[in-house]
Every structure is written in C-alpha cells, then in structure tokens.
Write a structure and sequence with these properties.
Layout: H1 2-8, H2 10-42, H3 46-70, H4 72-93
C-alpha cells in the first residue's frame, strides 16, 4: 500500500480522497433535490422549481470548480463520486442503471 502512495504522492492521494468525498456529498444533495424540483415544476410552482434547479446546478458547478483548482485528479475523483451516487438514485426512480 505504501508503494502505491509513494508513486502518486501523499498530496495527490489526499486530493483524490477529498474529491471522492466531495463528489459523493454533492451528488447526494443534487440527486435528492431533483425529485423536489420536479414536483415543484409539476405542481405549478414553476418559478420556485426553476430557482431550485438553478441552485442545484450552481452548487454542483461550484464544488466541481473548487475541485478543479486542486487538480485533475481531484476533479476526476469528484466526478466518480458523483456518478457513484447517481446509479442508486436512478435505480430507485425506475430509470436506467
């Protein structure tokens, strides 16, 4: 295990771990509020639904932007964390897996 960490560096390993954690957390928030935003759209609260949708995308963009400042490894790890959370939400909703 230490040979792997020596090869990529401790800072890069920390960025990857941070990226995965941030991706999972923002993914949980992003996909959990998707159902709520959809319900607002369908319930004739279009402005509120649109506001929530824009807030969801802004938070996602902000987190991915911050991860990009740490480096490509952090950004890719964050995207992997986001995609890992996406699958159970889609399966629960009856969509693609």
């Amino acid at each position: 295990m230490t040979a792997i960490l020596d090869g990529i560096g401790m800072a890069t390993a920390a960025h990857i771990a941070l990226g995965i954690a941030a991706g999972v957390l923002v993914g949980l928030l992003h996909f959990a509020t998707l159902r709520w935003a959809t319900a607002l759209y369908l319930g004739r609260h279009f402005a509120l639904g649109l506001s929530l949708q824009l807030a969801r995308l802004a938070v996602l963009g902000l987190v991915l932007s911050l991860l990009a400042h740490l480096g490509a490894s952090a950004l890719l790890a964050g995207a992997l964390g986001l995609l890992a959370v996406r699958r159970p939400f889609l399966r629960r909703a009856g969509g693609w897996s």
